[in-house]
Amino acid sequence: MDSTILLFIGMAFSFGMIINLTGLPPMVGFLLAGFTLNFMGFESSDALVTLANLGVTLLLFSIGLKLNIRTLLKSEVWAGASIHIVASILFYTAILFIIKQLGVSLFSELDIYGLVLIGFALSFSSTVFAVKILEEKSEANSLYGRIAIGILIMQDIFAVLFLTISVGKVPSIWAIGLLALPLIRPLLYKILDKAGHGELLVLYGFVLALIVGAGLFESLGMKADLGALIAGMLLAGHPSAKEMARSLFNLKELFLVCFFLNIGFGGLPQFDHLMIALVLSVLLAGKIVLYFLTLSKFKLRSRTSLFAAFSLANYSEFGLIVASLATYKGWLSRDWLIITAIAVSLSFIIAALLNKYADAIYDRYRLALKRYQATRLHLDDRPVRVGDAQILVMGMGRIGVGAYDALKTTYGEKVMGIDYNHLTTLQHREVGRRVITGDALDSDFWNKLQLTDKIKLILLAMPDHNGNRYAAEQLNNIENCSFKVAALAHYKTDEEELNALGVNLVFNMYEEAGAGFARHVWTDFQTILEKSPHKLDL
């Protein structure tokens, strides 16, 4: 095996592990590993670039699998993205023009078009980094997470338009046929039904992401990454879409290591490059303020606006594409490609720190931030009230519904269900169940949930242990509570973990299901089974 590849793997793991021990995301370590390898004289390779591109393609395909197209139609997404990109270009162009007037080196060569071009490149946020941060915090489905991802997708659309105009490459006339892609959704669904749960599911994901998505779009003169995103969106409504996303998760994470390593190979910086990149990193504060003020105008809570702004508080790898294209066209010198690469890397480190301490920052400046919050809040961002309910069932799947119906026969309307899927909520309401929408894995939900003293019992009936564990952690943080908590568990280790979090009663599904099955069998067949005198009755 090539010793260079072994060195790359070893460096990536070593730096990633060291950074992970500090509490920062390992991706920051991968960036530093790339810079270190660059400093040691190593260069990127075609294989590394291919794997990096594959990681980005799979990431965007995975986003599509979990994306609701209606998110893009919300005003805070399409209008917020449009307003912010214009405001950011004006902000950066004005600041860079002032720096140019001060006679700073590397700015004197820039005309007004060069300044606007750099401002445009810096106005974008990194889809890869933002989604990685949201996934690591398990908040991709939170309101602020959905808004952030929606804005990133709108920015991808703007990027397609820019590349099309600047390169002068008009999409093929056949690209209009892409509008018919939703018509093949039933066929894609049927294939997914037949793919099973093993290696065919993973391979089918690759086929959709690379051939149906990226390959098809690129062949028609469109942005390949946009194709991967849309390919994922075609399957977003299928029950197995989340399973496919989980099956691709580890491969996607591995390939993204190559992406962050590759950024570090952007070029060896000089002192001037570092100083200008540091200035651009400081200017990131303006970008955050613009995101916060823009989103606040759409009646979002100050916390939602701030957390979305922090998720988008970085410069994008698209900025590198713009800088590279401008260098090739002669619009900018190669110095700006190196500066952009350093600024992107530094912004990732800053964004990682902001997102790590987002809760602490918000708590400290809560009163000041709330001055920008509308009196009448956005419909999706209002407090979650449980009224006079005494029992909450979190997770209205098969087990949750069974528990809800059994409790309702005794306690009537004092029982309330909570489910993350609003369509499921509406279906339950149609049959007379009292259910509200809320995602237990969403920190926003817990921040908005207003529990009353009337609550006596909370059942954590989610099929995923991570959801039950996270909910137990959040309930454990509520002070002066008098309610009891019961939860489902699949394995003994899950049971022990929930008990350690203060859950009063844990129901082990497999153990209890076996005992219940035996009791059911004994009831029906006790007349033909002989009892041992040494055993107790079931």
Overview of this structure, please?
With 538 residues, this protein is mainly alpha-helical. Helix content is 63%, strand content 6%. The protein is built from 24 helices and eight strands. It has a six-stranded parallel beta sheet. It has a two-stranded parallel sheet with strand order 1-5. Helix 19 (398-411) links the parallel strand 2 and strand 3 (415-419). The protein is globular, with a radius of gyration of 26 Å. The relative contact order is 0.10.
List the helices and strands and how they pair.
Elements: H1 3-21, H2 26-39, H3 46-65, H4 75-101, H5 112-122, H6 127-136, H7 143-167, H8 185-194, H9 199-219, H10 224-234, H11 241-264, H12 271-282, H13 284-296, H14 302-311, H15 317-329, H16 334-356, H17 358-364, H18 366-369, E1 384-385, E2 391-394, H19 398-411, E3 415-419, H20 422-430, E4 435-437, H21 443-448, E5 449-450, E6 457-460, H22 465-476, E7 484-489, H23 492-500, E8 505-508, H24 509-525
Parallel strand pairs: 1-5, 2-3, 2-6, 3-4, 6-7, 7-8
Helix pairs in contact: 1-2, 2-11, 3-9, 3-10, 3-11, 4-5, 4-7, 4-13, 5-15, 6-7, 7-14, 9-10, 12-16, 13-14, 15-16
